[in-house]
# Entry
Amino acid sequence: LPGIVARPEDAPRSALLLLAGSSEPMDGPSGMWSWASRRLAVEEGTFSLRFDRCGVGDAADFDELTQPFSFSRAMLQDVADAVGYLTRASGRTPVAAGLCSGGYFLLMTIVAQQLARVCALNVLSWAPEIEDVPPFANEITSPEDLEVVEERNEHSLKRRLRTWAKTHMPYVVWEQLGSVLHFNVPGPLLTRASRQTEVVLAFSRLDWEAFRLQRGEEAVRRAQAAGGRLTTTLEFRMDHSLLDPLARAAVLPILRNLVRD
# Structure
């Protein structure tokens, strides 16, 4: 896979994997991963890796000019392989940060079990297995899209059941129904991931509201009660895709804390 490392001059004090969202190339949101990795190498002694998953950027097939599906098993394996490389190259157990689908990959077992800490930024999809991510997930590019796209693609009976269960049923029933009917329920994935590594969920205001609509706050409490190492942070300066310069400025301290702890 094509990738770029940023190395400190001396022996690294930390190792960091940076994952972009959706079909963004390795430089991340508006190039943030590029300049952040260089700053962290100089200021924090961080050995970092950013790379293109299959179908994206320099890892794309020139003859297939299509939008890649952002949640494929092949992409997940690419991420797991990248963590393995970073561990060997740096001599450190890595931490990782990922935006949206990039954050989702970091919560999957094959990746999370190799990491010391994870920061998942503005995640919208919570399927416990990669094969359970619905085919319409690529249409969800912002928190405002979430409910609209789900309603447009779901059968009317399933849509009504999902809405009723989410608002009226006890949380445990909502979670069980979600596992059976593949609703977008955060609980199972968060509980499993936070038992394997330390997880920080960082949200913009709109992404936090989307998380709350999926009863995410209850999912976090249940994961913590089950022994999960899981915290959340809300950053009002962030937008979903980190397009605003103030949003990217707000994420840099989050990355610093990730490599320092």
Q: What stands out?
A: Strands lie at 3-6, 14-19, 46-51, 95-99, 117-121, 198-203, 230-234. The chain has a mean pLDDT of 90. The first strand starts at residue 3 and ends at 6. The first helix runs from residue 32 to 44.
